[in-house]
Design goal:
Strand order of the largest sheet: 6-7-3-5-4-9
Radius of gyration: 21 Å
Distance between the termini: 50 Å
Structural class: alpha+beta
Number of helices: 7
Number of strands: 13
Largest sheet: 6 strands, antiparallel
Length: 291
Amino acid sequence: MIDLATAARDLVAGGWFVLPLKPGRKKPLGRLVPRGWHDASADPAVIERWWSKEPNANIGIACRMSGFVAIDFDPRDGPDDLHELEDRHGPLPETVRALTGSGGSHILLADPGVELVARMSPGIEVKSNHYIVAAPSLHPSGRRYQWEVEPGEVELAAVPEAWLEAMRAPDRLVTPMRLHDEDDVLSTIPIADVIEALTGRRPNRQGFVQCPFHGGGAERTPSLKLYGSTWACFACAPRPGAGRQHLGGGARQFAALLWDFPLPLRGPAFHVVQGRLLDVMLDYYERRRAA
């Protein structure tokens, strides 16, 4: 018997961001993820809740949230396209691969951090700011998606330089322009409001609040200090690669860490966090106004 819930849990255990799709279909299950792939999660508790409500939900993986882009080959639209592109740009490296229900393949490569074209040819689509359907989901044809090379079996390969040159979208900014303070709405929001909206916690009179990143948020003495629109926790271990720098930042950094986005925020991840956080704060202030 196919156990989609276990497959979803295994993907999340590997650090992938997953979302439920309609059973036997490719579309997000709107009643559980109204924002589609933007609501993808790597939280095991969320996955348990989703698949307990719909055990037959297909599995989607949000691409860039999970650190990859996918070359989606559909032989129905271009049966020779993958072979021709490999002749032109060189063979694709060994990496995670899946067989799709349509008879094509998903070739997963490490996210290069730049904006990419949506399609390279009639039969080759590039999935980056999107999601893919994952094994063992059921295709509308009745066939199932299958891993050809499973996640964890090999590391995600980098996009080869010749392929990256062909895939790169022209004249597109991939990192946000530096915002002026007067244009940056989030810089004007007190960090205390952001933390309350996201965690339900308010600071004490000394401006400290329990840190959700330190000791499971259960430390006896609150360790996260608020400074107007920024915060810092001097009890948290520094992030890998940050040297001796303590954990801290502004509203986006707090939300990104809480939602398991990698820092520093760049490109699409920046815009996902920005949009989701603005929605959260709008709802928070609407509820305060109505109270």
